[in-house]
Write a structure and sequence with these properties.
Elements: E1 3-9, H1 16-24, E2 31-37, H2 44-50, E3 55-60, H3 66-76, E4 81-84, E5 89-91, H4 96-107, E6 111-119, E7 127-131, E8 152-155, H5 156-162, H6 173-184, E9 189-200, H7 209-225, H8 234-244
Parallel strand pairs: 1-2, 1-4, 2-3, 6-9
Antiparallel strand pairs: 4-8, 5-9, 6-7, 6-8
Helix pairs in contact: 6-7
């Protein structure tokens, strides 16, 4: 079972080496790493090419943002399972992909999702926030629940059947995709109770209050676009689980 790991980059020179090394170090033997760069003007591309890696496809060209880059990667992917690993993120150990594939093989699931650690931007050994996802139940999204996207592994056939990332969402296309897959189309999902990814704090979505506010509006739009009801207290419910993650 081949796995395609897609990474979107743009001026990612400070973090891309950790990302690449975490993919290269995986014990699972059948991996392709696809990197879609948005025409970086730093030395991102040079760094990618200069170190040992599993990169099978690398393109660098202007795009319409991170979700456009991810969609390009999905189109290029030849794996049966697709993973999205951001350029700021890295796998927590070398057995992540093997563990996930074991779950796919045992369960025949459409997707497998797990937990995630947010870490300090400069000291990645310092865990700041623990995203413990827990089991999905229908209706969980409107109560503020959703998986951490870098821990969301999906069969490629699901993308072909139900579509990839909706580019009308600038900040929450990953949320809309997971909502569409789980709540609207009810794909067969399995929760793997383990933290698989370390994500640095300070990503585009959460870098300021305006982005957080706009992302929240996009999440409400995602419910509406998929014919689902968010409820009047959705913004409050969405905030509570995230605050709780700082105290786990």
């Amino acid at each position: 079972m081949k796995v395609s790991i897609i990474t979107a980059t743009y001026n990612s020179a400070k973090t891309i080496s950790d990302c690449i090394a975490s993919v290269r170090g995986q014990t699972y033997p059948d991996i392709e790493h696809i990197i879609i760069d948005g025409a970086s003007d730093d030395n991102t591309i040079e760094l990618i090419k200069s170190q040992p890696n599993l990169v099978k496809q690398l393109i660098s060209e202007p795009d319409k943002g991170i979700y456009d880059a991810m969609n390009k990667g999905i189109q290029m992917a030849t794996g049966e399972v697709i993973a999205i690993l951001n350029s700021d993120d890295f796998y927590i150990d070398n057995c992540v992909i093997q563990s996930v594939i074991d779950v796919f093989k045992k369960s025949h699931a459409d997707c497998v999702y797990a937990d995630l650690f947010y870490v300090d931007k400069y000291n990645t050994d310092k865990i700041v926030r623990r995203w413990i996802t827990k089991e999905y139940k229908y209706g969980s999204f409107k109560k503020g629940w959703h998986p951490a996207h870098p821990s969301f592994f999906v069969r490629k056939e699901v993308y072909y059947k139900y579509g990839a990332f909706d580019l009308s969402f600038n900040l929450a296309a990953d949320f809309e995709f997971m909502l569409r897959m789980l709540e609207k189309n009810r794909i067969h999902s399995i929760y793997f109770p383990s933290s698989l990814v370390k994500m640095r704090l300070g990503g585009a979505t959460n870098k300021n209050f305006l982005n957080i506010y706009n992302q929240n509006l996009e999440c409400i739009k995602a419910f509406q676009k998929n014919g689902l009801e968010a409820g009047p207290l959705y913004s409050f419910y969405r905030l509570l689980p995230k605050l709780a993650q700082y105290f786990k």
